[in-house]
Amino acid sequence: MTNRSTRRHRTWLLLILVVALVAAACGGGDGGEAPATTAPTTAAPGSTEGTEPGGEAGRPEIPVLRLAGGTDWGYPSPFGFRRGPGYVRASFIFDTLVWKDPDGTIIPWLAESWEMSDDGTQWVFQLRDDVRWHDGTPFTAEDVVFTLEYTRENPAGLPLRAASTVESIEATGDHEVTFTLTDPYAAFLTNIAAAMQIIPRHIWEGVEDPRSMRTPEAVVGTGPYRLEEYNQEDGSYLYVANPDFFLGEPAVKRIEFLPVANELLALAEGEIDAGGPGVQAGVTEDLLARFREDPYRTLEAPGEWAMDLKFNMTKAPFDDVRFRQAVAYAIDRKDMVERLLLGQGVPGNPGWLSPANPWYNPNVPSYDRDVAKAAQLLDEMGLVDTDGDGVRELPDGTPLSYELPYASSDSARNGELLQTYLAEVGIEVRPVALDRGIRDDRASTGDYDMILVGHGGLGSDPDFMRLTFHSKSKSKSFIRPHGFVNEEFDKVAGMQLRQLDPEARRELVWRMQEIVAEQLPVIALYHPTRYWFYDSTVLDGWHYTSGGLAAGIPMALDKKLFVDGG
Amino acid sequence: MTAPGPRRSTGRRLALSYLVTLWFVVTVAFLLPRLLPGDPVQALLDPDSIDYLYEETLRAQIEEHYGLDRPLLEQYLAYLGRLARGDLGESIFFRERVVDLVAERLPWTLLLAVPSLLLAAGLGSWAGVQAGWRPGSWRDRWLTGGLLVVSNLPAFFIGLVLLLVFGVELDLFPTNGAMERFAEDASLGAVVVDVARHLVLPMAALTLSLVGTYFLLMRNGTVALLGEEFLTVARAKGLGERRIKYGHALPNASLPVFTQFSAEIGLAVTGTIFIETLFAYPGMGLLMFEAVGARDYPLLDGIFVIVALSVLVANAAADLAYRRLDPRVVRT
Amino acid sequence: MTAASVPVRVVRRRSFRVPSRVLAGLVIVGGFALVALAAPLLAPYDPRELVAAPMLPPGGSHLLGTNDVGQDIFSELVYGARVSMVVALSAATIAVTVATVLGMVAGYLGGAVDRVVARTIDAMLSIPRLPFMLLIAAYAGGGLLQIVLIIAALSWPVTARLVRSEVLSLRNRLHVRAARGFGASTPYVLGRHILPAVVPVVAAAFALQAGRAVVMEAGLAFLGIGDPTGKSWGLTIRAALSYPLIYFGNAWLWWIVPAGLCIGALIVGFTLLGQGLEHWVNPRADVPSAT
Q1: Which domains does chain B have, with CATH numbers?
Q2: Across chain A, what does the average pLDDT equal?
């Protein structure tokens, strides 16, 4: 009661503060603060009639959007952040050449238009000429050229995948930039043009060590927000709207990432305005019911994350496809969805890409649980239980008994369930909890028989499959299974990379999934459904971008939504 | 005791032995994280997304930047050199100087740990004398019994119950972090109140989990003293019970308490890890937990060295204070 | 009240109660030991079997309900007694034995030996524990034996330091000096005069260590180290905590609290036992009039 009134009180105070801040921001460039006398002209919260100067007509005004912080994702400069959530936090400040609509369509952003040469090796972008950096300097093609060259020397927070496919980049005009590629690259727009955060040349030129640069200059971008405050120790971030943003002043005036103990609890108690469960969280019906009541809404999307059971195919019996298929038949993936995800998800796609992916192939074998089939395959291989202890043996007498390492940060239940299923067909697994770093290390160096790894990315560009399963891939990711060599896969994977016609590429990508589903170098166990709950009275219109934000970040924190206001 | 030589040489020897310990710890601090399986560069990249896949050149660049590509011995020497200059290096994961990170986190831990320790030692000792002075009395039994139960629960369990009851169910205190962020009232008074409110649950949990040890040590120490000659003498001199209790018994029974305290004050730098993890309190414990997870060599080195130094200093202080505290130690 | 001014009497009367504390400790510890031994008989279900729907509240055939995958929580607790007893007893035995030997030898002999031991203790105490634990766990795995060894390795220095400081103050006492003056050998003095005198400290330490071992096992589990398929109380709490909706509803009342109370009760048992032993072995501490 007192709590609530205090909260309202606070909101009011916050509003005043925001108004003052916005006024201050409007009033001056980077110099002194403007007096807050302009405050009374601002409209009441919730008003849909935008009256602010320079704003897009019809844009609502949302004084503050509170989100869950609590985890540090680094300083939100392109060189300071970590991982997907860190990228998103930097994306409020820094822009890319293009961006994505909710349905995944590439839309103009810093670039107004673009053109690809017929052979697919040249891309020409026409840039907007009305864009200014936060410090007032005009944005030009030179900044784009500089960004690519500089980030090649100094790796950014997210490594620019395939930046090596760019042979050269040139400013062919004040506001025109031309990329020349070594080979046609089907994922160029998503993986480079929509991912590379453009930095101001006049600030970064001459910076020796961009990774530890923490000055206010390091967060001068062209984006809709400026960083007001950041606290590394509790992962709190405060952004305020950039009134001079090239698409007009953003609707959401202030974004706060507040440190909270439990995201869902904080949302239920009104401490934040939107939030979601972790990717591996089992979401109960109770919880869903709670967030279906006003003022809450629920955004639901197929998951792009999977828990993979990975085989080491440099060793027997894992090198035999029949063994891997037997394991797949023995595992009850539907039961795992019921028990681990409480039904909020789908069994893993044997073809690996998740149903969230626009390139997902639904027509692969489903490997529904079939213990008899599994037993038959193992019998066929000559793996039988000769000593009657319930565990089958290899021809040389070694029992099929294996350690199953998993990360202690993941649920122990995965291993427990697999242990139960596989025991039924005479395969013994012993789950071993490892610290995540140790698990990662073993998974990426091949120190395992079978291993559990959970990972995202299955909703992004399908070239991910080539990087993971191609026998000559340079990837050292822990996702990559060891010892998988399939000539047809290598060939098809190489072709899809260069195939610029979407329909022709789809056929190849579907074929890749068929091969993986048949060969099973890994078994995707399940894909948890993504949930995002929000208070629709604060901000409505949340969405997941198909194929993920930028190069495939599966989050709902789309800056375009904050600019448009729903 | 041992060296009958001039006092100065004893001091020098003592200093030397501390130096050897320091070198040992500094070396362990270097080797331990590097022997751990895992890799700081890998930890930088996101295992939950496509960007976990990276290019070799990127890896090489990062390794070169932190000198991870050089032979271990060379790295070790560089590390010793840096330490000698008082430079703890730069965190790979946080991309900040280790000194800055520690300067950010250490005050929070001290704010949490030192009052908790003092409170626990003070309360525990006081209660211990009360209980030990009359072993078997109802006071002894209730204190012993009550503290026995509370302080024997794991710290994180006490914290968890406090968190669930006072934080979640009753919603009386914040359960997360050290202070509210972006509060509109940023006046000093408001901040102090806010920080104090955030401190209540973690400090209560820590104090409760620590107090029993002190109580027990002091109680048993007091009981053991009850028949000592000097107490009899004091009684014979006609000193009051109160005076004997606090003036004679308490100081004499406090040796193990002091030993325990000096052991814990040094470890306080990281000893709060369970509480910090539970309450997301941004102290050294949490920082170390993150550093271990990220295999952040320079940061781990730095934390090791700082903890080691504080422990050594606490030990040295304890060693020096021993003779003063224990009247039974005969000086040679 | 009058008795208060005549401490001798009070204490004498008390000395008959001493075994009762040992008894209380024995009952608790023994009780848990029995539960541990008879776990298959006492537990209604196999704690690993998925016996029912997830997250059932207590009642009916599930005394404490079921956990997030549908295992019986009560059965988990019953089997948890096994893990805790094994860890507590073996870790404390190893740690206290090492500590007593080193502490006595160092404290009594003094000189170079003492310096080496004292510095080793200092060094061990100054190594931050978490990376240390993770390091050993990484190489050794999170099995029961490994957990015991990790805990023992981390526990002995504190006790060794206590024993040493006790011996330091003992070695110059009258009867010890007298014995040495009469030409008694070092082992004789250690065994005859020092050991009995440090036994109370060691006994109390054993109790604390056994209890602490239980706490540390739970702590390791809390941080995610431990045999995942083993069913210890700490791992039960860990599992409950990693259930993302634990803050919603009151499942924590039957999922977390009983496990925590089991941990607490067992430690209380050990401590009572230790305290009782201390008085029993060394009546001197209890009967001041004897001197």
Answers
A1: 106-325 (1.10.3720.10)
A2: 86
Please give the model's pTM, rounded to 2 decimal places.
0.79
In sequence order, which residues have a C-beta less than 8 Å from that of residue B125 and are 6 or more positions away?
B214, B215, B218, B250, B254, B257
Cα pseudo-dihedral A66, A67, A71, A73, rounded to 10:
-100
Q: Output the average pLDDT for chain B.
A: 80
Checking C1-10 for CB contacts under 8 A at 24+ apart, the result is: C4/B134, C7/B134, C7/B226, C7/C288, C8/C288, C8/C289, C10/B134, C10/B136, C10/B137
pLDDT: which is higher, A395 or C183: A395
Contacts of C14 in chain B (CB under 8 A): 135-136
Strand order across the A225-231 sheet: A65-68, A254-258, A236-241, A225-231
Q: Which residues contact C248 (CB under 8 A, 6 or more apart)?
A: A264, A265, A268, A286, A287
Question: Is the model's pLDDT at C251 over the cut of 50?
Answer: yes
CB contact under 8 A, C211 and B152: yes
Residue A119, pLDDT > 80, answer yes
* C140-169 residues touching B, CB cutoff 8 A: 158, 161-162, 165-166, 168-169
- Residue in chain C closest to A433 (alpha carbons) equals C228
Nearest CB neighbour to C128, from listed B156, B228, B307: B307
pLDDT tops 60 at residue A44: no
* Burial environment of residue C1 by CB neighbours within 10 A (0 to 12, 13 to 18, 19 or more): exposed
Tell me the pLDDT tens digit for each residue of B82-103. Answer: 888 888 888 888 888 899 898 9
Q: Is the pLDDT of residue A17 over 70?
A: no
- CB neighbour class for A209 (10 Å; exposed up to 12, middle 13-18, buried from 19): exposed
Chain B residues 84-113 with a CB less than 8 Å from chain A: 90, 93-97, 101, 104-105, 108
Distance from C-alpha of C243 to C-alpha of C251, rounded to nearest angstrom: 10
DSSP codes joined into one string, B255-269 = HHHHHHHHHHHHHHH
Query: What dihedral angle (degrees, nearest 10) is formed by the CA atoms of C48, C52, C55, C61?
Result: -100
Long-range contacts formed by A37-40: CB under 8 A, 24+ apart: none
Residue A557 pLDDT exceeds 70? yes
| C-alpha to C-alpha distance for C280 and B301, rounded to whole angstroms | 47
Q: Does A288 touch chain C (CB under 8 A)?
A: no
Name the least confident of A52-66, A257-271, C12-26: C12-26
Beta-carbon-side half-sphere exposure of residue A289 (alpha carbons within 13 Å): 4
CATH 1.10.3720.10, applies to C20-51+60-282? yes
Binding-face residues of A in 329-348 toward C, CB within 8 A: 339-340, 342
The domains found in chain A, sorted by start residue, are 46-241 (3.40.190.10), 306-382+391-528 (3.10.105.10)
Can you spell out the DSSP letters for B42-108?
A: HHHS-TTSGGG---HHHHHHHHHHTTTTS-HHHHHHHHHHHHHTT---B-TTT-SBHHHHHHHHHHH
Ranges of residues in chain B with a pLDDT under 50 are: 1-6, 49-53, 330-332
pLDDT at C288: 27
- Interchain contact, B42 vs A464, CB within 8 Å: no
Residue A328 pLDDT > 90, yes or no?
yes
A417 touches chain C (CB under 8 A): yes
Neighbours of C3 (CB within 10 A): 13
Tokens found for residue A151: 């980030």
Model ipTM? 0.76
Q: Is A442 on the interface with C (CB under 8 A)?
A: no
* pLDDT of A427 strictly over 60: yes
Which residues share a beta bridge with A407? A434
Which has more confidence, C262 or C15? C262
